[in-house]
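Issue 218. Parser rejects a valid record. Input:
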Amino acid sequence: MASRLTPEERRALLPALGESGWGAAPERDAICKTWRFGDFSEAFGFMARVALCAEKMDHHPDWRNVWNRVEITLSTHSCDGLSVLDIELAGCIDAMEAGQTGKPVTGARPISALMPEAG
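Output the parser choked on:
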């Protein structure tokens, strides 16, 4: 079973995801990102590629698609929060994003909302 990210792991891993457009999901220990594509076919093609990566990892996103928009939320159900699996799947998705016509859409809470305060 996966375990939740420690405060040290959060400080080390989350800032890079924030720079690539991931944000804090509202009211959950999760990360989220939204893309807008040219049309439904492009959005669905992106989802199909993400699905293949997720299936290989046996770690599946929560997502929503409306026409040209794809919203992905990552959290690990078995630990009820963020785990290394979410970070790895986000990295896989970001690598796919480089060759896509879709553009990330801003609007999520800052990723820093998921990091512990320095103490």
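Fixed in the parser; the record now loads. The CA atoms of residues 54 and 89 lie 7 Å apart.
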